[in-house]
Design brief:
This protein has four helices and two strands. With 113 residues, the chain is mainly α.
Length: 113
């Protein structure tokens, strides 16, 4: 969990896990399997993750306070390259912790150091 820093588990679930599961459901893929295959370097999983990130960057909106009569407006979550890098790091760290961490516990002899 160190790679996630001070980010809470509910935040990771809300920001990344839920949208990724929804994306995988739409594309008829198992999200845990996608991450496992991605972390093992499989090309098809990489394409799925790239598709998710592209979709997330284009479509992720959040209600934010604005200084006008409307008070709130939908704004893009991803607004610059550093945000994309942050969005990328969270799911990779979460996948390593939640998916591969469980596998490391089940098969400690196969875990790399």
């Amino acid at each position: 969990m160190e790679a996630l820093g001070r980010v809470s588990k509910p935040f990771v679930r809300l920001l990344v896990a839920k949208p990724l599961r929804s994306f995988c459901r739409l594309t008829k893929r198992n999200s845990a399997r996608v991450w496992e295959e991605f972390l093992l370097g499989r090309r098809e999983a990489r394409r799925t993750i790239q598709g998710f990130l592209q979709s997330y960057v284009r479509n992720a909106l959040q209600m934010r306070i604005v200084l006008n009569a409307r008070e709130y407006a939908k704004m893009r979550v991803v607004t610059n390259a550093s945000t994309v890098v942050g969005v990328w790091r969270l799911p990779v760290a979460a996948a390593d912790f939640y998916v591969m961490g469980a596998k490391r516990q089940v098969q400690p002899e196969r875990a790399s150091s």
